[in-house]
Specification:
Radius of gyration: 30 Å
Structural class: alpha+beta
Pfam family, one: HHH_5
Protein name: UvrABC system protein C
Distance between the termini: 70 Å
Number of helices: 20
InterPro entries: GIY-YIG_endonuc, GIY-YIG_endonuc_sf, GIY-YIG_UvrC_Cho, RuvA_2-like, UVR_dom, UVR_dom_sf, UvrABC_protein_C, UvrC
Main location: cytoplasm
Subunit structure: Interacts with UvrB in an incision complex.
């Protein structure tokens, strides 16, 4: 059940109508925007406390002063309210809530189970393929490090299927003893299966059992006078012991996350150490958005509730501060995970060492963040001074255009706030229907499309719109905003200086005949360069992706007898154009619908190109 109050909110009247059941409440400002979301065991008592408290904090007083309406959703239990609150905060990110910005999917190590010779590889996203998934790992680099270590110990193939199926002789990985070349039959299924089984044992945290097995095989080989094989096992055991010493956590056998928080000066850092099957997979840091007065235990509870909403939960969380509602959070997490989840903060021995390490990392990362923020704040203040703004800007957007001789034009829009890049708000636009190479028309189209979405309420307006270009580009951006009747955004052009040297940019303002006379060495210039370079990078990346798709299509489209369906099948079977180009005639002809004559034409096309 949801109740929505009108904008002319009468607090006294509304409080009389509130239920004493559990639920969540959303506080709205006069524009109807959500400024705070909370949960309550008793909605009437909790919401009333905001308006009756004599000792409210300055933050709470400021928030209540802005309340023009409240929406209430009643739930069956307090646990349901906590879950709904976390979901809504994550979705809306209200101004006065603690909210988590980072929401990337996490990578895994994957071993397939649908191959005769299984593949060991990096995986991110939905777990649709048949096989075993190990993780999550805190970053792609942590997965790649693990794969690199595994390749040295157990030479299970890590190549893509398209590359594997197209091989006619062993690749470099076999020559450097990182693969046993199952692609050309240099290892039996039984021997390969043994390597796969050992890899799984390692990833499942069964390092001790694995070493015992390898020691047994080494002794058996030596007893049979197979000294070369025994030496191979000896080296494998030595490499395995070195890895286990580095990654294994003493006394841990299962899945544990260690979560530590540091908070000061209106900022916070949460460090998460990932331990899976008794092995430390790495750590990751987060900087949730908080208010000035939030305590570490409040931040931790909000972080945990939001972060673990859609992630695989370990059986235990070790936290740096006791959560205000630890039992309730554990109950909700257990319901999500379908298994018990313990939350502990009073730990000893080896666990205390790891917790202290996480706390030290959180504190160190927060200090570095505050130093960076102070520098960034100074750049924003400098920008205000140089541009003559009445207030310090809080949101900047910058546009750039990228193309190759006018083809496959892509416009980028990047966003910065006072904490740095806001990557979730970045956008690219494929520019269509303009004369090739017309950067003015491209800027006009991109700005119009971006700010049309702003008019629809899809994103907030920037204080300053930066355009990578001179007077012509600035004029087109101005026209686009005028067509949309948007007149409260400052437009600034950033024209390249002599020889494109950094620090020599010319700053163009609407209505000014001459470039702005910027103070030499001003911190504002560093901020402008930073956002302009980021827009340029983002535009080039988008253009290359678009150009790559076109090139991929055009090369195959030139081959007689290769229609759209067969092109799609080829690209899918070989994992892209590179796989097709490296495939032999036999491999190409093995695809349904590809005759040997057509396979030869495809092969000749790429062979001819390689000759040039």
């Amino acid at each position: 059940m949801t109740e929505t109050q009108p904008v002319d909110f009468d607090a006294k009247t509304f409080l009389k109508t509130l239920t004493q059941r559990p639920g969540i409440y959303k506080m709205l400002d006069e524009k109807g925007e959500i400024i705070y979301i909370g949960k309550a065991k008793n909605l009437k008592n909790r919401v009333s406390s905001y308006f009756r408290s004599q000792n409210a904090s300055p933050k709470q007083q400021a928030m209540v002063a802005k309340v023009a309406g409240i929406e209430v959703t009643v739930t069956h239990t307090e646990g349901e309210a906590l879950l709904l609150e976390s979901q809504q905060i994550k979705r809306h990110k209200p101004r006065y809530n603690i909210s988590l910005r980072d929401d990337k999917s996490y990578p895994y190590v994957f071993i397939s189970s649908f191959h005769d010779f299984p593949q060991l590889t990096f995986h991110r996203g939905a777990k649709k393929r048949r096989g075993k998934y190990f993780g999550p790992y805190p970053s792609a680099s942590a997965v790649k490090e693990t794969l690199k270590l595994l390749q040295k110990i157990f030479p299970v193939r890590q190549c893509e299927d398209s590359y594997y199926s197209a091989r006619s002789r062993p690749c470099l990985q076999h020559q450097i003893e990182r693969c046993t070349a199952p692609c050309v039959g240099l290892i039996s299924k039984e021997q390969y299966a043994s390597d796969v089984e050992n890899t799984i044992l390692f990833l499942e945290g069964q390092g001790g059992l694995l070493i015992d097995r390898l020691v047994g095989k080494m002794e058996a080989a030596a007893a049979q006078l197979e000294f070369e094989q025994a030496a191979a096992y000896r080296d494998q055991i030595a490499r395995l012991r070195a890895v286990l010493e580095k990654h294994c956590v003493e006394g841990e056998k299962g899945d544990v996350d260690i979560v530590a928080c540091a908070a000061k000066s209106g900022a916070a850092c949460v460090q998460v150490f990932f331990i899976r099957n008794g092995q430390h997979l790495g750590n990751r840091q987060f900087f949730p958005k908080i208010g000035d007065e939030n305590q570490p235990e409040e931040i931790l509870q909000a972080f945990i509730a939001q972060y673990y909403l859609d992630k695989t939960l370990p059986h235990e969380l070790i936290v740096s501060h006791a959560l205000p509602e630890s039992a309730l959070v554990a109950e909700v997490l257990a319901e999500q995970a379908k298994h018990a989840v313990a939350i502990a903060n009073n730990v000893r021995g080896e666990r205390m060492k790891w917790l202290q390490m996480a706390m030290t990392n959180a504190d160190s990362a927060l200090n570095a963040r505050l130093a960076d923020r102070q520098g960034l704040q100074g750049r924003f203040i400098s920008l205000q001074q140089e541009l003559g703004c009445e207030t310090t800007p809080s949101r900047l957007e910058c546009f750039d255009i990228s193309h190759t001789q006018g083809e496959q034009t892509v416009a980028s829009c990047v966003v910065f706030d006072r904490e740095g890049p806001v990557k979730s708000d970045y956008r690219r636009f494929n520019i269509e229907g303009i004369t090739a190479g017309d950067d003015y028309a491209a800027i006009h189209q991109a700005v119009f499309r971006r700010f049309s979405r702003l008019k629809n309420g899809e994103h907030p307006a920037p204080d300053i719109l930066l355009i990578d270009g001179g007077k012509g580009q600035v004029a087109e951006a101005e026209k686009a905003l005028a067509e949309l009747e948007i007149n409260d955004v400052m437009i600034v052009g950033v024209a390249k200086g002599p020889d494109r040297k950094a620090g020599m940019e010319k700053i163009i303002l609407v209505g000014n005949r001459q470039p702005l006379d910027v103070t030499p060495g001003a911190a504002a210039l560093l901020l402008i360069q930073q956002i302009r370079d980021e827009a340029h990078r983002f535009a080039i990346t988008g253009h290359r992706q678009r150009r790559g798709k076109v090139n991929k299509q055009s090369v195959l489209e030139d081959i007689a007898g290769l229609g759209p369906k067969r092109r799609q099948v080829l690209l899918k079977q070989f994992g892209g154009l590179q796989g097709v180009s490296s495939a032999g005639v036999d491999a190409l002809a093995s695809i349904d619908g590809i005759s040997r004559q057509l396979a030869q034409r495809i092969y000749d096309t790429f062979h001819h190109q390689d000759g040039h």
